[in-house]
Amino acid sequence: MSASTTRFTRTSKALFHEPNALVGAGLLLLIIVISLIAPLISPDPTVVNPLHRLAPPSLEHPFGTDNLGRDVFALTLWGGRASLLITAISTAIAVILGYAIGVLAGYFRLFDSIVMRIMDGLMSFPSVVLMISLVGVLGNGVIPLIIGMSITLIPATARLVRGAALSAKELTSVESARAIGARTPRILIRYIAPEGVSVVIVQTTMALATGILVIASLSFIGIGLDPSTPSWGGSLSSAQQYFNPAWWMAVFPGLAIFVTVLGLVLVGDALRDVLDPRSSRG
Amino acid sequence: MLLYALKRLAALLPTILVPMVLLFVLIRLAPGGPAGALLGDEASPEQIQALNNQLGLNEPLWRQFINFLGSLVRLDFGDSLFLKANVTGLVLDRLSVTATFVILSMIFALVLGLITATIASRSHNGPLDRILVGFAVVGNAIPSFWLAVMLIGVFAVQLRWFPVAGYAPPTDPIAWAQHLILPVFCLGVLQAAELFRYSRASMLDSMSQPFVATARSLGLSDNTIQNRYVTRMTLVPIMTVFGLSLGTLLGGAVILETLFSLPGLGQLLLTAVQRRDYPLIQGCAFFIALIMVIANLIVDLFYAAADPRIRYGKAS
Fold it and tell me: For chain A, which domains are there?
């Protein structure tokens, strides 16, 4: 326990000295807090006001209004709630399952040769296309999105953890554990699985970023989320026809997606540099 | 080389099989059966029966699976439920637009990514390098469709330099180019950001190799070292990233095609999904997977040509 605690403090200290990590974490915190307290600080984004259609930014409507007279500020604050929640749940499912699959595949040859083939097959298929086809078959809604997103995100985690598990298997600690009679489940949990932790932490940020982008792409083309649910992708898709003069309809929801993904990418890169200096991209 | 190609092809088969089997299973798991999901609550039992017959869902499951595998081999997915035409024909009609779009974006991304990576690695940690790295980080986080909406707004709607959307056949080269410039730029520039990061890292890596110091001590100029040794060394890792980024590129193309109204595979897939046209969804997914397999095979063969060790050694 104490070993992992010191590792944790060491990692967080190192991260504290990375300006990029701080900026990224700040951006993420901003988005999360805004999404959580949106109902408290902003008007109802679904209120339609035909008299105030396409109004430019003003004190009353800081981000202007859209083609139905809805407040773009409110739409932007609310727009992340559904997609962030869906992405967080799917990433959690994908990381847990991917972790388990990766550890088992790294340790058991037979399991590896069958399951990793399936994972490779899924992984080389474009994730957006996979999501569109899965949701197309399962139908729209939150549950199909979570199922599809989890399936899409599992392979990358499984593959990275498998790599870590493969090299962990060769460690002398594993050999000595087996020599003193440790059983396979104990070896897997105590010796192999911990080697995958840092890989999984970095991969989680990448999976979250992919998830946010894919869900936004899908709601942009009108698939998945109910069109009446506020979403950044959905707001952007109605913004297309009104760019002139209502540029604010396109700018702010897009900026929200950008800030979220940028935060995740910055934190992910910094984590990679700190946790896994070998694979750092310089 | 032929043996190697066949081996790689066998290893790439799951790319087609796994997503197709997944769709096969999920279609049959739809609540109320696929026919119920398609026709809605008001459908009469006769209508459901008829649709089940058309989709081959009345046969036993093992039979359906054999038929499904057969359809993959014969490239025949039956008729689209709504467009009332053969799925393979519909897909092949759209293929050339998507292929043109993706290939042009790929070339643009490759050229831009490699040039900027060369510039950045030559001035490592200099101001130019830092600016380019900053751009790449930002480019990684920009959703392609947001960039596209903004660029359409500025360059097509305001300035009227380009058409807002649509496609012209290459028989009219000027109109064709005008319709493709914006979509290719949007897709390619973001991909270039990704390629830039990997190429720069890999160029910096090869520049710290001893053979570069040797070349320099022999009095070779920076340009000669760069062009003759460093660029060649970095080609293989760059091809790896390139192979991996094909999926992102194709996925981005699907979204941008619907936005720019390019009559390609992506648009067809979207129509199929909106109408839950199962045969058409399967057909589109199949051909997208097939494109991935062919592209990856080309990348693999390029590797083998660039590095003979891969051909004879443990090809993984």
Answer: 18-32+63-275 (1.10.3720.10)
